[in-house]
Amino acid sequence: MSRATEPAPINSQTSTQADVKTIDIQPDWKTEFSRCINSTDELLNYLQLDPQQLSVSQQAALSFPMQVPWPFVRRMEVGNPDDPLLSQVLPIDAEMQTMPGFSPDPLKEADHNPVPGIVHKYRNRLPLIVSPHCAINCRYCFRRHFPYEENRQSKEQWQQALAYISSMPEINEVIFSGGDPLAANDKFLGWLTEQIANIPHIKRLRIHSRLPVVIPSRINQQFFGWATTTRLKPVMVLHINHGNEINDELAASIAQCSANGILMLNQTVLLKGINDDAEILSALSEKLFDCGVTPYYLHLLDQVQGASHFDVGRDKAKQIYAQLQARLPGFLVPKLVTEIAGKRSKTQIISVGE
């Protein structure tokens, strides 16, 4: 099986009287975004894997397109059909199964969409659907069926959402969500952040993003130019499910965020066949802490249609969690939670002290 051709780094040469040096110029995040793999054949060809061996489903890929950036692909193990990163992004036949209890909108977010761009489920914090796009399409995504077209809007239309926030004095935290909020351009994000900072009762800006994980170059000076320059306290919640996702480039990006005063947290989804093992989760927590990230949440799978094959089940999740508690100090144990439609907060399954 031949291997797909990976985009090569862009090289330039600078010369001095003393010597000639070749400098690797890495693509910026927008270039990396534009080069995402969206063909199962291309991905599996690069990894030297047989599509039939993996029950690849083109029908599932049509329903929810595959999209994977090269920086993430390069962390996958060539020749390993059970690679934990590959399993998160590859469309397979199991996605086409219809399972009781799994629905297109498991959290009933359509009931909490008062104006375009806002999902208002919690009392004092409020997510904004800043961008409909993601750099990577995770097959277990609870918003894989979300009506993004109905929440796409211009700056003028965002004024309605800002007015809504201004009218709710109990809200003290705004969450940039999506899609992936960091898929939006920095100029727009800077404008939106300034508008939010002008609302007196907002204290914090929380950014939920997987983009820095899959394309670490997304963390750049333009990002810091808006994320850390207002009176709002910045918090970033990454989404990392397995220790293999953390490499030197990601660790360097995280270090830059911490150095610029951003509180770094992580949430993980418990996924069958990927991280449903206390040893794997323990290694992830240790690796996160080594990078300066606090393990925050361990989520049970949201029961979204097309993702039932990832479901671990509550009883097994509690067993794994008890083992995790026995391995780690309390500050490295994330909260085991689930989200129940209509509830005003996440539901903790078992406390850290139990």
Explain this structure.
The chain has 354 residues and is an alpha/beta fold. The chain has two domains: 33-96, no CATH class; 109-350, Aldolase class I (TIM Barrel, Alpha-Beta Barrel), CATH 3.20.20. 29% of the residues lie in helices and 17% in strands. The protein has helices spanning 29-34, 40-46, 58-63, 70-73, 86-89, 155-166, 186-197, 211-214, 221-227, 248-259, 278-291, 314-327; strands spanning 10-15, 20-25, 125-131, 173-178, 204-209, 233-239, 263-269, 294-299, 335-338, 347-350. The longest helix has 14 residues, at 278-291. The radius of gyration is 21 Å and the shape is globular.
Summarize this, please?
This protein is α/β, with parallel strands linked by helices.
Averaged pLDDT: 87
| CATH classification, class level of the largest domain | Alpha Beta
Structural Rg: 21 Å
- How much helical structure, as a percent, in the residues? 25-40%
Order of helices and strands: EEHHHHHEHEHEHHEHEHEHEE
Integer tally of domains: 2
Write out the strand line-up for the largest beta sheet, numbering strands in chain order: 3-4-5-6-7-8-9-10
**Tally of individual helices:** 12
CATH homology superfamily of the largest domain: Aldolase class I
What is the CATH architecture term of the largest domain? Alpha-Beta Barrel
Low-confidence runs: 9-25
Largest pleated sheet: 8 strands, mixed
Q: Helix/strand-derived class?
A: alpha/beta
CATH topology of the largest domain: TIM Barrel
Large-scale geometry: globular
% residues in beta strands: 15-25%
Distance between the termini: 51 Å
